[in-house]
């Protein structure tokens, strides 16, 4: 069988003859430096941690309902005086002496009313003395820095435990406002919450941060636990103690409602 002859009107080659039919190479993304990856990882971990405790407490304070300003008593007195003066001017032109006396009496009454309302308003707007806040600025700054620094270097279960502990601390810090100690939530419970935010949690995280990064996963010579194991155990212990006191606080609130119910039942009319 004779071999087919090449057609001179066509192009023949062992490779693609144009770019349309040539295979395209997939461009690889440029390599990312290790330092940039580490910074992005730390940013994601801080984002999981959420806003700082001081910011959350400040939001709660700013969200409190504000007292509406009342009408100043001077405005009321000035209005009364203006009306009385206008009435006196009209009545004087009519030649009525009794009307003049009434106008002067109205002015005197308006003056007395202005002084009385001014003194009363001053006493109402006088701020009540408030006790010192349970958490000072330095304590909140210290615990926020400790949380942020630790969240930037831990991962996995330790990061989850850190986020959970912070949430429990914020809940208890917000719940302390207006809570009085009783049999359910004692003064020791209140002081434990305050000291946890002021000292216990920051001291735990600071002690962990002082351990060199290379030595944190290495088991110690004492109990054979590494710094990572010790930190995770201490975070779990702190959260357990805070949650127990949170349950006592809620139980104390329910008990107060039950006492009110028993009181109302004792005062109810018996048929």
From TrEMBL:
Extent of Basic and acidic residues compositional bias: 1-10
Top-level taxon of origin: Bacteria
Protein keywords: Membrane, Transmembrane, Transmembrane helix
Region (Disordered): 1-39
Protein known as: 5-bromo-4-chloroindolyl phosphate hydrolysis protein
Organism: Polaromonas hydrogenivorans
Listed transmembrane segments: 74-92, 98-114
